[in-house]
Amino acid sequence: MSEHKIDKELEEFRQVMEVPATFEDGFNWTSLLGAIFVALLMVPGAIYMGLLAGVDSIGSASQWVTVILFIEVAKRAQKTLKRAEIFVLFFMAGSAMGLPFGGLLWNQFFVRSDAAIATGIAADLPRWFAPDITSHSYNLRTFFHLDWLPVVGMVIFGTFFGQLSSTILGYGLFRVANDVEKLPFPMAPIGAQGVMALAEDAEEKNLDQAESKWRWRVFSIGSALGLAFGAVYLLLPTLTGALTGNPITVFQIPFSDFTPKTGNYLPAVATGISWDFGNIIFGMVLPFFAMVGAFVGLLSSFILNPVLYHVGLLKSWTPGESTISTLYLNNIDFYFSFQIGIAIAVALGGFVQVARSLRGSRRQARQASAALPHSSLAAVPEGRGDIRTWLIVAVYFLVTITYIGVSGWLIDWHRGVMAVLFFLGFVYTPLISYVTARLEGMVGQVVEVPFIREASLILSGFQGVAVWFLPIPMANYGQMCVFYKQCELTGTRFTSIWKTQVILLPIILVSSIFFMNFIWGLNEVPSAVYPFADQMWKLHAENACIMFSSTLGEYSIFEDAFRFVYILSGTLFGGLLFGVMSILGAPIMLTYGVVRGIGQTTPHSVIPQFIGALIGRYYFKRKLGLRWRQYIPVVSAGFACGMGLITTVGVGITFLSKAAIPLPF
Fold this sequence. Notes:
Layout (H helix, E strand, L loop, with lengths): L1 H13 L14 H13 L1 H11 L3 H20 L6 H14 L6 H8 L3 H5 L18 H4 L8 H32 L7 H15 L11 H31 L11 E2 L1 H4 L9 E2 L4 H8 L2 H23 L12 H49 L17 H22 L4 H29 L8 H8 L20 H10 L4 H29 L8 H18 L8 H5 L2 H20 L4 H10 L5 H22 L1 H34 L6
Antiparallel strand pairs: 1-2
């Protein structure tokens, strides 16, 4: 019964696209020009809006704007961009928005934050994380200083080996999940639909029937929605703030906080709402039962938190607290440990799901071998651009050993830490990557064993906080499988992606550090100029100090927050819920959503996303049928493009106003 329901929900996504018969090389120097265009014009806007409102719409918009611009230029040059070229251009534009030095702004804040200083962490932070707080670079507000060289060097090292490992090892897992085990990857078409819409527009001269051009029309509708909403939500406050110093906001950014008022009726419950219309569209894109599960989790916090408060478990909360304070205090009292238990239950559920799938796939493999004894179950499509298995294994060993060597040198070859590094690199990483690859291929889910890194480092016996900032050989490469599936669905040769990565690396590094330095030079970060960072970074710093303080060798906040009983209760409760919902035949998306949601769920985005899910399922789906599942990813892509375009205009005007030199007359 449960298998039938699971297949029925995911079948809508599986049927959206099929793999083409041929593959083409999409890399050319035009793509490189697109990456430079993004790096120079879009990156600073994305950084600024992330600090201002916590939105990444410019990141998505940069891809769509770049692709649309080059398509139009190609049309006027009497040329047509192929689907593979558009996909690579789209990928390159998105990768150019990568910010390897994005953490530098956080580093300079954290080392000087009240939380880090009060807990004694600031004095023990290593040089490769941030210079000492006495460094003159903080007064100058610049990263182009000798004191920042170790930090910059560590970022370059991590960026190079991180891209090498995720690209090659992610491909290797894709080969296993897609070619050997024939998994469907139901969520992959969501990301590929927008690219197909632009490809149809680029090939417009070959299309005679109006039905064939539906993607471009739907994309345009989404773009118009994004432009209209973005003008009110982001452009108006950005322009008025830049020109008059007093921003006018119709919808509060980043969210409206109702917690101080509702605390008298819902003690210890964070309440509020995000007014970003993109949440409603996002709720339509994702599977309906995933949104239902998240909403059920939200309702559980509305019930569970007051009960925990009245029985004395949430003892630190007092009426009048804000959302940020409520979340932090609840974490310390209960949810830090309880969420670890919930995450363990989710991870165990993922392992069980994979184990069941493995048994089923083995039976299918034996049947296929019996029917076709001379066929290969791992046949590779011709012309896709695959590489040999030995190279994948060689890259894995090279990257892992290099990480272990550098980390060992940084902490003087501490025996306990070295044992942890070998365990994480050669045991945990391949295991969790394979499990995630299978879950992504089956149901579009990612699994992580919670706090495995943190627990391993604490048990290593190392004293000090330097261990938290080592380049540890731990990653989940299974998440890259969806990207390679999208690449395959668009008929793009894999070698195009690998050549693109090589060309992009220096562009990403240079643009990232240059514009991070530029943004820091405009104003202190965070400050009142950046309301999102000003509100949220304090919470992030306080939560980070909980874990970092665990290896100081003395009493710490971690000892207050870490309770084995709460971890066990979270694991048992989550596991019981998993079992009950599986017995009842609940859809897999609903099961994961509910179990994840019984932790401390915040309502700000969940409520509008759930509203979007209801509208999509009970209005648009009934009206359009399966076509709705094809339409909404394209609408979402267009909306991101429109929002990003309008916010880019606002950021550009803001930069111009700040760069202007006032005259004395």
